[in-house]
Amino acid sequence: MKKKIELASPIEDLNMSYAICKFLKSLGINTIGELVEKLKSGELDKAAAYSSLGIKVVDVIENKLIDFGMYKDQNQKELDKMYQKLGYESYKEYLEESASGLGDEILEEAVKRSRL
């Protein structure tokens, strides 16, 4: 189970490499909230392009934030909007409902086959 993190949590709570944490701290980023702010403003992209870690580090950071539910990329935002029109809170809610329904269908089918 992942540790619950908040915007005020330190960046170390994301369990990223020492090099990434050191890079972020060199930019004055100490909390998740500061990190999200720098990502949204594009400042992190610019700094990463000139760092020894390179621009790919931004993808690593974004993915880590997405894993902890602290950031959504543009594709995720578009998916959420599309599924909100269909009556779901988000794409994640749709997937969860679909998965639970699918599990029920598989279970029902297994019960039917066992009775044959």
Please provide the ordered H/E string of secondary-structure elements: HHHHHH
Share of helix, binned: 55-70%
Percentage of residues in strands: under 5%
How far apart the termini lie comes to 40 Å
* Structural domain tally: 2
- Give me the count of strands: 0
Query: Helix/strand/pairing class, anyone?
Result: mainly alpha
How many H/I helical runs? Answer: 6
Estimated radius of gyration = 20 Å
Please tell me what the overall shape is: elongated
Extract low-pLDDT stretches: none
Question: Averaged pLDDT, please?
Answer: 80
What about the largest sheet?
none
Description:
This protein has 116 residues and is mainly alpha-helical. It has two domains: 57 residues; 42 residues. It contains six helices and no strands. The chain is elongated, with a radius of gyration of 20 Å. The N and C termini lie far apart (40 Å). The mean pLDDT is 80.
